[in-house]
Amino acid sequence: MPFGRIKVKEARYLKEFRNTDPDELTTYDLAVLILEEPIGAQLGTLGLPNNLENTKNLDVTVTGYSAVNKDIKQMYTDTKTILQDTNDFLFYQVDTLRGASGSAVYDSTNRVVGVHTNGSEAEQMNYAVKLNEKALSFIYSVIRGHSIDGWKLIGGTWYYYKNSTKQTGWQKINDTWYYLDASGKMLTDWQKVNGKWYYLENSGSMATGWKYIRGRWYYLDNKNGDMKTGWIKVGGNWYYLNSSGAMVTGSQTIDGKVYNFASSGEWI
């Protein structure tokens, strides 16, 4: 598919449709695939015009990738007239080399009216499941139950989606700051961003204030979260943080002068 390889987490089926020709044993189905990872916002509409009950003689465009010849990489796009509308199926005559099941069938207003299913090479007769009221109700019920926005755990890594799009950089979510790298991955531990160091908890949230990390105390700006160095005044007391941000204790020579610090870090 044009988005590359995407893992399907779950498939939901409406019902099994059977060809109206009694001599044909092939069955067709409508399914909604729930992907492990959203593919981004896709603009468009889905459904039938309110005043359109039967689509016979309607010109529609069938799109997709050929299914018979695997060497053909070009998508086919062909506009033909619907020959028959059974309310469950649409029939049209178009050469799609059988075509890829799941391709969109849409009208001149770019409204999707069906889902291409299969065809006959000999007669070049192709079929689509019609998006009638029953099918649309099923699709919407699945979509409502599976929001693609918010936090998603994919392959052991957390990503955050907004408006169906993977977010990157600093994100404020429920009054908490997180940092997502260029691929959208939620980062943890020490991270250097735009020349400043930040500490991100195991949950991904940005730490602020005093933080004890691997045997050392650090101070992270209460507002911006960036790691501080040098002299800082907190709660009326002075502290000194070395070049790596760690709080010092005991006797220290700073800029040629000797200073004494309590075990809790205060300058005494």
**Distance N terminus to C terminus?**
68 Å
Oligomer: single chain
What's the CATH superfamily of the largest domain, by name?
Trypsin-like serine proteases
CATH fold descriptor of the largest domain: Thrombin, subunit H
Low-confidence stretches: none
Q: What is the overall number of helices?
A: 1
Give the number of domains: 2
CATH architecture of the largest domain: Beta Barrel
* Widest β-sheet, arrangement of strands: 4-5-6-9-8-7
Order of helices and strands: EEEEEEEEEHEEEEEEEEEEEEE
Which CATH first-tier class of the largest domain would you pick? Mainly Beta
Characterize the overall form. rod-shaped
Helix percent reads under 10%
Rounded to the nearest angstrom, the radius of gyration is: 30 Å
Proportion of strand residues: over 45%
**Biggest beta-sheet profile:** 6 strands, antiparallel, barrel
Q: Which structural category do the helix and sheet elements fall into?
A: mainly beta
Q: What's the average pLDDT?
A: 80
Number of strands: 22
